[in-house]
Amino acid sequence: MKVIITGGAGFLGQQLATALLKNRQGLNFEQLILADIQCPTSPIEDSRVSCVALDLTQQGAADTLIDAQTDVIFHLAAIVSSHAESDFDLGMKVNFESTRQLLEAVKAKNSAIKFIFTSSLAVFGGQLPDVITDLCVVNPQSSYGAQKAMCELMVNDYSRKGFVDGRVMRLPTISIRPGVPNKAASSFASGIIREPLNGIESVCPVSPDLALWLSSPETVVSNFIHAVNVPAEKFGQSRIVNLPGITVTVQEMIDSLRDVAGQETVNLIRFEPDDAINRIVASWPGKFDISRALNLGFRADGSFSDAIHSFITHHGRAK
Amino acid sequence: MKVIITGGAGFLGQQLATALLKNRQGLNFEQLILADIQCPTSPIEDSRVSCVALDLTQQGAADTLIDAQTDVIFHLAAIVSSHAESDFDLGMKVNFESTRQLLEAVKAKNSAIKFIFTSSLAVFGGQLPDVITDLCVVNPQSSYGAQKAMCELMVNDYSRKGFVDGRVMRLPTISIRPGVPNKAASSFASGIIREPLNGIESVCPVSPDLALWLSSPETVVSNFIHAVNVPAEKFGQSRIVNLPGITVTVQEMIDSLRDVAGQETVNLIRFEPDDAINRIVASWPGKFDISRALNLGFRADGSFSDAIHSFITHHGRAK
Description:
The structure is a homodimer of 319-residue chains. In chain A, 39% of the residues lie in helices and 17% in strands. Chain A has 319 residues and is of the alpha/beta class. In chain A, the strands form 3 sheets. A 7-stranded parallel sheet of chain A has the order 3-2-1-4-5-6-10, sandwiched between helices. Chain A has a 3-stranded mixed sheet with strand order 7-9-11.
């Protein structure tokens, strides 16, 4: 089996590569290609891995990546929400056009390829019911969400036509990411926990009342790998799955941080409203009906305190 | 005011041009451009009209059509549902890529342009509620529907960003179209009335129980022109409108035909199930909540019998 990860240098790409190489879920493969705009490095030294620098927005780039021997593509490459909002043209190129070219390459070379596409809860927005179901309208209020939603439709239709075997994973907001803040509007959802745990001040740009739909990176990566094994026919008339998450308000996140790390740590969070971020993040829903995802065998996180403990276990804590 | 109609040689393009030139709804303009892949002719001789042959799938074609003086574009150019299903690549080019290039040209030249985009009830499919509301998921089961749905998202996001002033009209199935059958999966919805009225046999490929969501061409054209006059802010967080229609089963259509034209005419209809057409058409919803459209000032048809009388008035009846 030959597996490709686009966005292989990114956080989720590296986590996914680690999980695959450690064979955490029994997906056996002979070759793993990590592709990104700057050449990734493998998180673990392993002869099965090769790393390539590739700009997927360039005409023909997808064709150089995919061949008839490819079995699975995890397409994680994207620019994040605030970046796509500030540079619309780049967002269309990276988030939409690259996906289209990958799908065209699959269609031309091997339509049996399983194409795991990472979408986002950012496809939702505007007037919404309290709980998002599979029958809920997609009405993105950001260019990132619009581009992801366009790709979802494409993956669905290419799959219906038999041009690819697509699986669309709509990700909750990922928390807690290790590392440093990024341009995602949701960057604070990791920052307000990660920075204080490391003794650093963190700015929260949204109200404590805001409800977020969260998943730990470990659970998301495990669900990515599970997506490969779901039989195509089980998806029915849509390849799109709202991945399981948990509903947590910013205040509840902070309360969990206090429980785990104490008030002194919580004192490092400063509230400083940012309208641009708030407008994007507040348009995302905070609660989902995940029965379909659970029926398909995807799994949910435990509590947010568990996520904090897991972060400390995996990434340590400066003191 | 300078107005462009793409698909200007098509049935709706010609009807719309006629309505505009006859000044039926008080839209004053100095210039009307009819564009199509083969050069249209104006339905009425009028010095304000110019006609151009233009393949909008060609790089740069949209740029030659649109200039800073353009005020309104009615983008009707498309290939129909069965055609987009049998030639996927052409559908992506004509139905999706052309729209994208038009939007890019508008963004570059004059973002105040009102862009009236014709979408379709074919964006709906799969598991659906009995009545479609504005909060209902889009899940197209045809490439035509998928391409239209992708364009809807684009028009919405370009509008949100202020790159265009878009208005997306989701059309019911149009009945009764004059002329000859086309490659639309819904072609029969006009054919089973039009052909018998002209003394010609017509094949109905679907069950008499099938409920259709219909609008007469006159009402759709009137709603197109109305769309220009709706203030942008009235659309709220989505530029998409499910245009008003009426719910009629195939049997009710035939009953209306009998009332208007007699049993002898009805005898010219022959049922011959066609799985390919049925699969597409049966995935479309038959009933909508149109309160939003009515609030925005769009109008609904009367009964289907009225539509038959109107067809006979406008297009006559062979005997």
